[in-house]
Amino acid sequence: MNSDQQVISVESVHMEYSTPGGIKKVLSDISFDLPKGSFASIVGPSGVGKTTLLRLLTGLMTPTSGAIKFRGSIVTTPPKGLSVVLQDYTRSLMPWLTVEKNIALPLRKSGMSKKQIAEAIEVVLEEVGLSGNQKNYPWQLSGGMQQRVAIARAIVMKPELLIMDEPFASVDAQTRFDLEDLVLKVRDDFKITTVMVTHDIDEAVYLSDFVIVLYGTPAKVKEIIKVDLPFPRNQIATRGSKKFSDLRTKIYGQVRGLQ
What we know:
The protein has a domain at 1-77 and 202-259: Rossmann fold (3-Layer(aba) Sandwich), CATH 3.40.50.300. The protein has 259 residues and is an alpha/beta fold. The chain has a six-stranded mixed sheet with strand order 6-7-8-3-9-10, with helices on both faces. It has a four-stranded antiparallel sheet with strand order 2-1-4-5, with helices on one face. It is built from eight helices and ten strands. It is globular.
């Protein structure tokens, strides 16, 4: 694929820290491209460096060497066109603001009129299945509904890149499945390029076009696995297929160091 079709390019990224005990090497020679409109999941053992890589992708940290490029420009600070959904919605949402005011936060300096902002909020609330909840406060909603608000806020600016850090880890299993299907719907409707960090291998396979497996100390890309599962996907047929099972088994083996 041509370089101008890549939303994110990670080029030979190394990351290390100075500690009282010496230099700690976290990431080594990480390289991959994130094509426009694709969905990638990053998986690996606990402590392997997934969160560090996510911070590098968002521009909150800069690599020791190598480069991360967003639309061809090197990322040194959080770039315009990026939105983030965090794991803990109780910290990402402002409890003293209504749903509509939470969603409006990234629109404050957009130059949009009050009418345009209200219309944009209405569109994303309908997208995430929360129409009519504009005047509610986050604490009046369930955990799953609060995370839907966080997703609505992330997509209201129609970002080119959405980064999610274990976005469903704080909700129950049924709500998690519902939110996974919501993410597939948002991806289909808005065509947003997405990268997600997750510990849940089943979730990674279900949502992704490809899965990036990190392993080792310092972490390297063990393999980038293409998820060749048909769309539309659903929680029963997709998860029950042999191809899904084979992919899950392969990735699990790599994360555990068995392959």
